[in-house]
Write a structure and sequence with these properties.
Distance between the termini: 15 Å
Number of helices: 1
Order of helices and strands: HEEEEE
Strand content: 15-25%
Structural class: mainly beta
Strand order of the largest sheet: 1-2-3-5-4
Number of strands: 5
């Protein structure tokens, strides 16, 4: 997990009231370099926890939609290795998992590079984030 000083020491996760997590680091994926031309936005997202190889993230403003019908879900990918990987935050049980992110959506539906699933992932939009703020997550250290 990522602490406010950028280290990945376990138990040092910070909540929204603390610093955002950003640092310069090598780009994870060459596609992200071309995405810099896309519009940068700030979004709040939640984890859907749906049993499939499909995208699990959606904009929190749609969380009241019954069964997330007609809600666009997408993948999240950090733009560099020093950012916490949002896909590693869910403990498999505790919801909601909510994040605030700054980044860009892919122009086309693509397969993610950092999302692991037992089934075949579906192509979908990817949100490449440069900043991540954890609003709620079970893996945030207490105290």
């Amino acid at each position: 997990m990522l602490s406010s000083n950028g280290s990945t020491a376990p138990g040092n996760m910070k909540k929204e009231t603390d610093k955002t997590f950003t640092k310069s680091a090598p780009i994870l994926n060459p596609r992200v370099q071309t995405s810099k031309k896309l519009q940068t936005v700030t979004i709040t997202v939640s984890y859907a926890a749906i049993a499939c190889g499909c995208p699990q993230w959606f904009e929190t403003k749609f969380k009241k939609e019954k069964f997330l019908n007609n809600v666009t879900r997408f993948y999240l990918e950090p733009t560099n290795k020093k950012l916490v990987n949002a896909n590693d935050l869910w403990d498999g049980q505790t919801l909601p998992l909510t994040l605030k992110l700054v980044g860009r959506f892919s122009k086309d539906n693509e397969l993610p590079k950092t999302y692991m699933t037992k089934s075949t992932p579906e192509k979908a939009k990817i949100f490449w984030y440069d900043k991540i703020i954890i609003i709620s997550a079970s893996k945030i250290a207490k105290g």
